[in-house]
Q: What sequence folds into this?
């Protein structure tokens, strides 16, 4: 499915402008700088064409993309910019939270976690919400090339352990490097299963 052409089709700054859900949907979330854009680029090989700017201070939107009419990929604004204004920060977080709690037809949220830095409080906040609303989510460790393989495995185990009692988490923890391409095909395979054929 990732061979299909990627088309941008909607941007939403408020929940009432989310497009109606019609095809399977996968969203990508994570703290800013976690490597989300790079991962979307690696997965689709076409992200550069549609990539929107992700700079702090600008109003952030949730962006919806289609791979043919088979799969919808949703780019959630990165949260936790240390230097964003409080009110700007809050509005992004509220939008992301609303989306992961109440989006009808949301099949999976890929929660991206920086392998070297691990989970942040905002990640756990999002996880709590997804548990409460039974939104299926999967952890994707990014930038695995920055640490030794043993440390990648350790990080994955640590996260798996911390989510042991959670019900909506989809296993296993995935591991990718957009830089080397490690794990990308594997992730495409896992996510591709959710597509409509
Ligand atoms: P975003 O803010 O989550 O969209 O993150 P970006 O994709 O823009 O990446 C943030 C920074 O991390 C950039 O400087 C990227 O070049 C770098 N980066 C992204 N993915 C990787 C990776 O797999 N390995 C390494 N070493 N750096 C990465």
A:
């Amino acid at each position: 499915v990732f061979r299909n052409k990627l088309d941008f089709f909607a941007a939403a700054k408020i929940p009432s402008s989310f497009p109606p859900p019609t095809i399977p949907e996968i969203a990508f979330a994570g703290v800013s700088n976690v490597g989300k854009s790079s991962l979307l680029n690696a997965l689709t090989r076409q992200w550069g064409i549609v990539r929107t700017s992700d700079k702090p201070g600008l109003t952030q939107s949730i962006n919806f993309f289609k791979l043919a009419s088979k799969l919808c990929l949703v780019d959630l604004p990165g949260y936790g910019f240390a230097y964003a204004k409080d009110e700007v920060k809050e509005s992004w977080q509220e939008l992301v939270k609303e989306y992961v709690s109440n989006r009808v037809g949301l099949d999976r949220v890929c929660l991206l976690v920086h392998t070297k830095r691990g989970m942040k409080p905002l990640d756990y906040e999002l996880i709590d919400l997804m548990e409460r609303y039974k939104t299926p989510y999967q952890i994707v460790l990014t930038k695995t090339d920055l640490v030794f393989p043993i440390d990648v495995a350790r990080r994955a185990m640590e996260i798996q352990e911390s989510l042991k009692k959670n019900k909506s988490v989809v296993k296993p923890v995935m591991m990718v490097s957009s830089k080397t391409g490690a794990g990308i095909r594997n992730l495409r395979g896992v996510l591709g299963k959710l597509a409509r054929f």
Summary: The first strand starts at residue 6 and ends at 12. The chain has a mean pLDDT of 91.
